[in-house]
């Protein structure tokens, strides 16, 4: 760290620093001013919201500060000047990052302590201290990561694009994973959610937001927006990403060539990687979707050409561009076909039948021409482990239906991507806790896994009659009235034909 350069930063960015600190203070005061009398009923949600708004403001600053403090290396008229100062590159990098980190840390202290005081110190000092330390940790990581992303580019505009593109990339990855699993894994409900949810592990931004969200919720007991949990893996991975960012900064700043300023951002981790990563993920989503693939591919090519124009600052097609586009399109097509022919790489048949808390089968037929025009059919079979032992015939029938629906997913000529082709839907949910099953805790919660199967065939009426011996099956007649299946069959015996 260089003291002289630190004093320069303090003086040069004094107005901006004061503005950011005052903004943090104003947000905390404004968010908590609705409960000046310290009513506990309102303190928790107000303090929760104020802390999250303040933290989001500081997260936004981790994108702004790299632009403010490092854009000089991307401008031809300032790069030579700053990089020729009697300050080593390493000292300059460390000093600037420390300055930005201190600013963000002061904002954390101001925002969290102000809200804490205004809400009558509803949390313990230890809790607030841990929250401030966690906030400082994640803000430090995000500052390092965004600085690394920004400096992969050779112009300020390109650097901003890189930060935003890398931040959004995990979201696109999650969408591509979910679309791929939906298209290739029968019973996709649990698998695709798990695949998409795992994309958070490559997003320092979401792990930082989610960790602070979970801590705030733990302190106040007031759920804000999302159901994040405290995950040690988030802290470990963010620390790893922070270290990797500093290693990348050795190359992109400490060993940076001043001649790069103002050039086309053609380093491998800048536009070349970002453009083609997005292109591949988007082609994968296109081939995994039931939409018009040729139209979507044509639109994607237009976007690709526009992105290359922004990158190269000219309309120029190269042999490598054509080869890469063709390779990614072919790879996406083959991946989807491979997924279908291997039944989701075996995942479609890799499912559990009842957890420690039992299993729930839910069936809904929602086409009025189903079952000889009789109307809709539905049932919910909530079976404890004891019920599973007591009614093996019901489990046998429903598991036979599940396997038939899996076969139908891969072998039927009818596309189950089209909602109008569905005859019914079967949901199979496993519970590790009996209380969760009784309370119908949502799928995706810890210890709850769900599979969903659409069918163009539907469960036969004969099987429904067998299921009805253990579970109440209901049917909605064409008159809109709901009946128990036994009563309806007595009045309409033709339904069994």
Note down, in words, how this protein is organized:
By secondary structure, this protein is of the alpha+beta class. Helices cover 63% and strands 8% of the residues. The protein has a six-stranded antiparallel beta sheet. A hairpin with a 5-residue loop joins strand 5 and strand 6 (482-484). Helix 1 packs across helix 5, helix 7 (156-184) runs antiparallel to helix 8 (188-197) and helix 7 runs parallel beside helix 11 (271-288). It is flat, with a radius of gyration of 29 Å. The chain starts with a helix and ends in a 6-residue tail after the last helix. The relative contact order is 0.08. The model has no long low-confidence stretch (mean pLDDT 84).
| Strands side by side in the biggest sheet | 4-3-1-2-5-6
Q: What integer value in Å does the Rg equal?
A: 29 Å
**Average pLDDT level:** 84
The secondary-structure element order is: HHHHHHHHHHHHHEHEHHEHEHEEH
Instruction: Please give the share of residues in helix.
Output: 55-70%
Task: Point out poorly predicted stretches.
Answer: none
Sheet having the most strands: 6 strands, antiparallel
What's the number of helices? 19
Strand content: 5-15%
Question: Total strand count, please?
Answer: 6
3D shape: flat
Distance between the termini: 85 Å
Which structural class do you get from the secondary structure elements?
alpha+beta
Fill in the keyword field for this structure.
497 residues; alpha+beta; 19 helices; 6 strands; 8% strand
Write the layout of secondary structure elements.
Layout: H1 3-12, H2 14-32, H3 40-70, H4 76-83, H5 89-118, H6 125-150, H7 156-184, H8 188-197, H9 204-220, H10 232-254, H11 271-288, H12 293-312, H13 319-341, E1 358-365, H14 370-373, E2 376-383, H15 385-390, H16 392-411, E3 424-431, H17 434-438, E4 448-455, H18 461-467, E5 473-476, E6 482-484, H19 485-491
Antiparallel strand pairs: 1-2, 1-3, 2-5, 3-4, 5-6
Helix pairs in contact: 1-5, 2-3, 2-5, 3-5, 3-6, 3-9, 5-6, 6-7, 6-9, 6-10, 7-8, 7-11, 9-10, 11-12, 11-13
